[in-house]
Design brief:
By secondary structure, this protein is an alpha/beta fold. The protein folds into two domains: 230 residues, ABC transporter transmembrane region fold (Up-down Bundle); 246 residues, P-loop containing nucleotide triphosphate hydrolases (Rossmann fold, 3-Layer(aba) Sandwich), CATH 3.40.50.300. The chain is built from 18 helices and twelve strands. Helix 3 runs antiparallel to helix 4 and helix 17 packs across helix 18. The structure holds adenosine-5'-triphosphate (ATP) and magnesium ion. Magnesium ion (MG) binds next to helix 10.
Amino acid sequence: MMIHKRLIGTVSESKKYVAGNVALQWCALAANLTMIGAICRLLERLYLGNVRAEDLTMTAAIVMFTVAVRFGCSVGAARMGYLSSRAVKKTLREKIYGKLLRLGSSYKEQVQTSEVVQVAVEGVDQLETYFGAYLPQFFYAMLAPLTLFFVLCFVNVPSAIVLLIGVPLIPMVIAVVQTWAKKLLSKYWDQYTALGDTFLENLQGLTTLKIYQADACKNQEMNEQSERFRRITMKVLSMQLNSIAIMDLVAYGGAAAGIIVAVTQFRSGHVGLGGCLAVLLLAADFFIPMRQLGSFFHIAMNGMAASDKIFRLLDLPEPEQKTAAVPDDCSIRCEDLHFSYEAGREILKGLHLSFPKGSFTAIVGESGCGKSTVASILMGRNRKCAGSVTVGDVPLEEISEESLMKNFTYVSHQSYLFKGTVRENLRMGRPDAGEDAMWMALEQVKLADFLRGEQGLDTRLAEKASNLSGGQCQRLALARALLHNSPVYLFDEATSNIDVESENDIMAEIRRLAMTRTVILISHRLANVADADQIYVMDHGEIAESGTHEELLSMEGQYAALWYAQQALENYRKEGQR
Ligand SMILES: Nc1ncnc2c1ncn2[C@@H]1O[C@H](COP(=O)(O)OP(=O)(O)OP(=O)(O)O)[C@@H](O)[C@H]1O
Ligand SMILES: [Mg+2]
C-alpha cells in the first residue's frame, strides 16, 4: 500500500495541510505553464520575424508575474509542510504519552522502555517527512502529469500521449523495489532498536561492567552489533541509490522519447516551433514529480515501518479504566493467590494472607520465595494473578490506580529519587508539606543531622540521588513516604542499607506508624518483625508458618531456627564490638 489509511486517519488534522500543499504546488505549475507558453510564443514570433514591441513588454510582465506567483506558492507549500509536520508530531506524541498513562505503571510488562523512547522520538520524526513531504507529493505527482497532458494536447497530441504513457513506468519501478525494500527496512528497524537496547543497558551498567572488567567483552558485543547495523544501513542506502538510478533512467528516457516525437512532428510540419519548444521545455516536468515521489518513497517506507511500531504500541491492550475507590475499611485479604511470571514456573502457590486495618503484619522468608511479588500484586501490578485480593469488600482489580496510589504507600529498598532538591523530592509525598513537617519526617528517619550540615532542604540531589549513600537514599525515601500520610504502608526491605542502630530507631517510628495505620513489613532481619501482630513465614511461594513471634518460636519450625541463628550472629557481632 502506498497510502497508509489508518495513519492518515490518526492525524486527520494534517489532511487540510496536505491538500493546501498540493493546491499550492499546482498553482506553481500553472504559473510555470503560463510563463513557458508566453516565452515560446515570443520565440516563435521572433523566428517568424513578426514580433511587436508590446509583445516584448507583455512577455516580460507575464514572466515577472509568474515568477512572483511561483515564489509565493513554494513559500506557502513549505509552510504547509511545516504545519502538517507539527500537527503530526504533536498528535502522535500526545497519543503515545496518553497511551502510556493509560497502560499505567505496569507498561513494562508489555513493552520495553527503550523501544518506547525510540518510537516516540525517532519514529515520530520519520513520520514528519511522511506527512510533510511524501503525502503531498503523492497527490501532486498524479495531478501534475495529467495537467501537463491536458495542456499539451492543445499543442501536439502524439507527443503528449508518449509523455503520459512514460509516467506510470516510475511507480511500476517503485512497486518492484518496494517488495524487497519492505523486508530490508523491517530488518533495519529491528537492528536499530536492538542496538539502542544494548547501548542503554550497557551505559546504565557501566560501573558494574568496569568492576568485573567485563567492559571489553561487552564492547566486543556492541562492536559486532554495530557492525551488523552498519551493514544493513549500507544495504538500505545502496538499495535507495540503485532504485533512484533506475528511476532516473526511466524519467529521462521518457522525456527523451517525448522530445523525439515532438521534433519529428515539427519536421513533418504538424507542430510549430513554439509548440515544439514548449514540449521540449515541459517534457522533464512530466516526470520530475513522480521521480521526486520515488525518492521520498524511501522516507515513506521508513515512516511506515516506524508507524507499524507506533501502532503496535497504541494497540497494546489496556487495563480497563477502573472507578472503585479504596474503602474506609482498608483491611486487605488475599485468598488462594496464585501467580507466575512465565508459564510453568509458579511463584505464588495459593497464598492466604490477611492484613486487618490498623495492624502490623510482617512477611519473612528466604530470598526468592516471592515476598516482593506479593507486594507488587498488592500495589496493583502483576495483574495476571489468580485468586482474589480484596480491600475491605472491594476487589483490588476494580480499584482505580489513582485511589490505590493515594491510599497505599510502597517503599522498596530502591525507591526512585529524582534529580532536584531534597525539598522537591519530599513534596512529591505531600505537595503542601510545610518546612516543619518536612524536618519532622527527616528527624524520624535520622537524616536531619546530615542535611543540616549540607544545604538543608535545598541540598541538591543528582540523578537517582547518586550523590547520597545507599542508606541516605533509603532514609529520604522513607521520609517522603511518611509525609505521604496514607492509611496503608508497604515496606519492602526499606531499611536494608541502614546501620543497625539507626535501623532500630527507624523501626521504632514504623511501629509507631503501625498504631494508626495498616503496615505490611517485608524484612530479612527478624528482630525487626518480632513485635508484629502477625508474621507470615513464606517458603517457595507458600505460607510455611504464621502467628506472633511467641507462637512461632514455640512451634520450633523454620522461624525459630532462623531467629536463633540471627540472634547468635547479632550477639557475636555485639561482642566483637566490645
Ligand atoms: N520480573 C520477573 N520476571 C520473572 N521472574 C521474576 C520476576 N521478578 C521476580 N521473579 C522471580 O520470582 C521469584 C520471587 O521473586 P521475589 O522478588 O518475589 O522474591 P523475594 O522473596 O522478594 O526475594 P528477596 O528477599 O531476595 O527480595 C524469584 O524466583 C524470581 O526469580
Ligand atoms: Mg524482594
